[in-house]
Amino acid sequence: MNVTADQLDALQELINIGVGRAASLLNEMVDSHIHLQIPVVKVLTAAEAYEELNARFHNDSLASVKLSFSGDFYGTAGLVFPTESASTLVSILTGEEAGSDDLDAVKIGTLSEIGNIVINGVMGSISNVLKQHMQYTLPVYLEDTIDNLLLPTQVSNSKILLAQARFNIEQLELMGDIVLIFEVGTFDALINAINEEMAVLWESSS
Fold this sequence. Notes:
Blueprint: H1 5-29, E1 34-45, H2 46-57, E2 62-71, E3 75-82, H3 83-94, H4 101-129, E4 134-136, E5 140-144, H5 146-149, E6 159-169, E7 172-182, H6 186-205
Antiparallel strand pairs: 1-6, 2-3, 2-4, 2-5, 3-7, 6-7
């Protein structure tokens, strides 16, 4: 299914609502003010997403928080950072010095919580606005290359929603990626739900 400009705008708005809620929750947890933006949202095939992420990250080690979702839509959602950016983010939020043993000890827990908040914010926005039911697994933290985090053979028939996440904290800008993998047939259901919601909004405004 091809995505129209209006549908892509609706997807970006849903994700922006979700990250806005996530940023509010993160700001309640830490002393630093976090401004979270999603400047770019793309709908890609698995091969296209793999090529884009592989070109950006190459064989760099990445920090990833992933969870599975099921229900009216099903697939996998992840928040991916270069490990250096992940360590910097955790250092700012926790006060631990970069490179310290203590930082490594708290990084997994901190990033898992950040990933959980951001991913649930985005998926919660999609399910609430579109009135669709979803369930989530617990987040899993992984450090690996993009080759192993996003194997093309595992998601070859999937549609991938790729959203760049920009974290602005105390004049420091960090970039990560929100990767939503919708398994076969599920993405069409998502677009159909968006079309239905857009039709309702159109009728109520006319």
